[in-house]
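Good morning C.,

I know you're traveling, so I'll keep this short. The sequence:
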Amino acid sequence: MSIADKLVLQRQRHLKWRAFDRLELALMILCGVLCFGFSLSVMFDIVTRTIGHPWLWLQEVTSTLFIYAIFIGAAVATRRNDHLYLTAISESMHGTPRLIVEILIRIVVLGVAFCLIWFGYINYLRGFGSFRLPSGTPIASLYAAIPFSGVLVGLFTIEQLVNGIRHGFDHREPPDEGLSISPVETALPARPRP
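The tokens, ready to paste straight into the viewer:
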């Protein structure tokens, strides 16, 4: 099994287009790099402050990595049905009621995506009037992640909506082969009596 097969989730395959698998893979790798970079920059920030020679620019790097990881992670989690998705309600239903609830949930998520795009873009434009210190970079560099995430959330939600209407949302999932759990031995070994 390749790394791509491990990173691209196969659950609910009937709701996904194969064309977006590479995008999901790239976003998962990007999220991993962002989270690793965030952890590394926090560590360096702590170390440099402890030795008495802080690198002030590390706080900018840390906040940038954190914000981009959050918004890109939210987008990829939407494709994987791990985020912005109310599974407890819909998975307890079958047939037409489930179809209606699944469509309504995704319409709400599309509304969220539209708000991310619209208001994120407004904040992005306004961010050119404020600057981050000490670099002097416009704060718009942080706000750019918001509409980008909104576009991806909208794209992945439309993908699920179209495929769910065409193929149905209610599909039985095959058991995960890689997650087999072996039985735990519960009996205590017999001890010799004195």
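Safe travels,
E.
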